[in-house]
Each structure stands twice: as structure tokens, then as C-alpha cells.
Amino acid sequence: MVFQVHPFKLTEGDIPLTKQLAALNERFDQFSALSTEQFSISAPRFASPQRYETTCPLDPLTDPTKQNVISISFHANELSAGLFDHFALNVLVSLLTDGHSAPLRKTLLDTNLGTDWSPNAGHYTFGQTAFVAFGVQGVSEGNEPLVESEILRVLNEVAETGIESGRIEGVLHQMELSLKHKSADFGTRLMWKTMDSWFDGVSPMEQLEWTSRIERLKNEISAGPFFQNLIRKYFLENQSRLVLTMRPDEKFDENFKSKERALLSERVESLSEEDKKKIVEEGLALLAAQETPDDISSLPTLTVKDIPVKGETHATEKETIGEIPVQWRIAPTNGITYLTATSSLSGLPGHLRPYVPLFADALSSLGTKTKSASEFEDEINLKTDGLRGSVSISANHSGTFPKRPLFM
After folding, report:
1. 73/289 Cα distance (integer angstroms)
2. 3-class state of residue 366 by DSSP
3. 354/369 Cα distance (integer angstroms)
4. How many Cβ atoms sit within 10 Å of the Cβ of residue 126?
5. What is the mean pLDDT of residues 13-26?
6. What mean pLDDT value characterizes the chain?
7. Which helix (H) or strand (E) holds 155?
8. Dist CA 72 CA 270 (whole Å)
């Protein structure tokens, strides 16, 4: 099924968004701006690379010699310097780790040096300072130095050779599509995206300027070795880094509980009688508040009368292209075309049908006769939002029952 597109208009119900914003602006103009408060600070940076080792619970279901975790974390950009480097590092980390073509994935996961990325892997922020971590879990005992050297080797290699332009265009294409997708939680996601760094001093309007950042990134890439310089600045020449190694310990839970009991005992013994009385009073007050029925009269409510008896419908058109029946549905999709193609599995032998769901899940990772899995994935990212397969038994497009499974 293909959706064709009409110009998309920002509205809420039948009221144009511009009128709503004008009404809000009229109310907000009555208030003056508050002085900026600092909610977070920058993380102190290391003068030289640091190392730290710790332990974790032992997984009894896997080989105890293959449960080590190792990662290299770098102090990266400061949010106070603007969001462009933050955005560019997000793209760079995606290019290095996501997909079959990602150099770190091919080196660390495809070679079985590790079973998956470490929990701290990625680009994230704590306060004003952002961090980038590359690491894997499921590392065999003795392979920790190899993982560390391979991460640095790949970063050095990419800093010299660069990244294929097709992969960069594919990642940017995916980002641009994600901004256009209409979904029921679009407003909520937008709110959380702006709040993510608002409390760290970043303007919410700057957070929303995705298009300008994408355009600037394209210009920076065309002007020179942008990502190579980014790797040198934030990784290779950055001495503020931490190499973390975590090893399984069969007594981890026992030791953890023992430390908790000792800490609790120490805290209790330090309390005065007045402190204990206050804790009891606050606990009783909390219990009373939790047991008090909520006043729901002020909450917005929805009744059956508010729900239309007849749902919204969109006209469909049917035609045949060659020998293939096609159904078109016209809907406002913000410039995106969606396609669903079905194929009959009537000729598939019965003993192979149980494996069709597995085939559907792996479809976009199999490659083709002329392209490897990584090349095929790059083409998918460059030209679509993704290809997904599924198996369904249902009425077909003409309303008759095919009495056979369909591959979609």
C-alpha cells in the first residue's frame, strides 16, 4: 500500500497552531524573565588517562571466563559550547558502532571479541559535560588488553582513511526522516527532547533547530576531513579518558549485602532519639497521604459522548500495474511515502513454513546476490527508513480470503 502526500499543516484539531501560539504569547508577555540558575556543572577532566577495575555479579548460565566488561570513556563536548559538536558526535558514534558496516562493530562484535556493547557505550551527558564510551561485554579472560588496543587502532584507522560518504548520507537521511514521522506521541517526545538539556542551560529553541545543524554538518563535511578531525580532537588527542574493566565475582551479592548492612547499622547508630521520632512522624504522614483518595474532579475527563461514532476514513483507489493489483491511500504523511507489498507463500513446502518468521526478521540483514549484508544495509539507510518483513494470514486487498499465508 502506498501513501501519497498533501502539504502538511501544523494544527491542533480545527484550530490553526498560529492562533494558539499567539494566545499563549499574549499571556506570557505579562511575565518577566527570571535570572538563569545553574542546575549542573562541568565534570572535572583528567590530566592523563585513568584506569579503574571493579567487579560485577557472576552469571551462572554462561561461561565464567567470558563475562568480563571493558570500555574506554572520553570526556567529550561541553553543552555550554553549543549543540553542534554534540549533534556531530552523535552522528560519529552512530557511524562507528551502528550497522554491519560500522568499523567498531566489525572489529569487536563480528570477531566475537565481545558478545554485545557494554551498558555504558554511546554518547551521553551528565550535567554540562558529555561523554563518549566504546566498550563490549562478554570478553574472555585475558582479552581485555586486546579489546582496548583494537578500539584505539580502529579510531586511528578511521582518522586516517575517513568514512564512506554513502554511510554518512544514510545516517543523515535517517535523521531527516525521523523528524518527519507523525506519531501519537510526537508532542511528548518533542517535550522530553527539549527538557533533556534545558536544565543544563541549553535553549529549548536551539535544541529544536535540527535542520540547521544537519545543513551545517553537510557543509563541514564537504569543506574537509570533518569527522577525522573530530576523532583526533575528542578521542586520540584527548588525555581525559577512563579505561574501565569489570570482572565477575561469585561473592559479589554477598559482599554487597554485607556492606549495605554495615552502612545501615552505622547510620542507625548515629541517629538521635529526636531524629528517630522525626523519621516515624514523616513515615506516618507519607502513609496518610498515600491512603487519601485523590481528587479527580480537576482532571480532564473523556466520556463516550466525546468519541465520534464514526471513525475518520481516507479514500482509497485501486488499479492494476502490469499484473499486480495496487491500492493507493491518500493521507497527510508529512512528505513520506509508505509501501507495503504482499507475496503469496502458497508454493512454500510445509516443512519450511515454521522458519518464515525467522526469515522475515533476518530479511534486511541477509544481503543480495550482488551486495553483501553491509552494502545492502547502507542502500536501505540511504534510500528508505528501513525494510521490515512479517508474516500474516488475513483477507487480501480485494476482500477475499486467500486461504494461505502472506509474506509482507
Report:
1. 44
2. coil
3. 24
4. 11
5. 76
6. 85
7. helix 144-161
8. 40
Q: How far apart, in whole angstroms, are the C-alpha atoms of residue 396 and residue 326?
A: 11
The set of cell numbers assigned to 11 is 494544527
Which is nearest to 397 in space by CA: 313, 315, 323, 327?
327
Q: Which three cell numbers stand for residue 309?
A: 461514532
pTM (two decimals) = 0.74
Rounded to an integer, what distance in angstroms lies between the CA atom of residue 4 and that of residue 115? 42
- Specify the domain boundaries for CATH 3.30.830.10 within the chain: 50-248
Q: 324-330 and 2-4: which strand pairing?
A: parallel
Residues 88 and 230: beta-carbon distance below 8 Å: yes
- How far is Cα 212 from Cα 81, in angstroms, rounded to an integer? 16
User: Under the phi-then-psi rule, with left for phi > 0, alpha for psi from -120 to 50, and beta for the rest, what region is 16?
Assistant: beta
* Burial grade of 218 (CB within 10 A; 0-12, 13-18, 19 or more): middle
Quick check: helix, strand or coil at residue 317? Answer: strand
- Residue range 115-174, pLDDT digits in tens: 999 999 999 888 889 999 999 999 999 999 999 999 999 999 999 999 988 888 888 888
Looking up cell 510526537 gives: 186
CATH code that applies to domain 50-248 = 3.30.830.10
Q: Which cell goes with 374? A: 553491509
The pairing of strands 316-321 and 391-392 is: unpaired
Give the mean model confidence (pLDDT) for residues 2-9.
Answer: 32
Span 271-311, pLDDT tens digits: 999 999 999 999 999 999 999 988 887 777 788 888 888 88
Residues in a beta bridge with 217: none
- The one-letter amino acid code at 242 reads L
Rounded CA separation 98/104 (Å): 9
Q: Whose grid coordinates read 560500522?
A: 102
Higher confidence at residue 354 or residue 397?
354
Residue 196, C-alpha cell as written in the block: 533533556
Judge whether 364 and 91 are in contact, CB under 8 Å: no
Which one, of 140, 130, 129, 152, lies nearest residue 72 by Cα? 152
Q: What's the average model confidence in pLDDT over 314-318?
A: 83
Question: What's 283's DSSP letter?
Answer: H
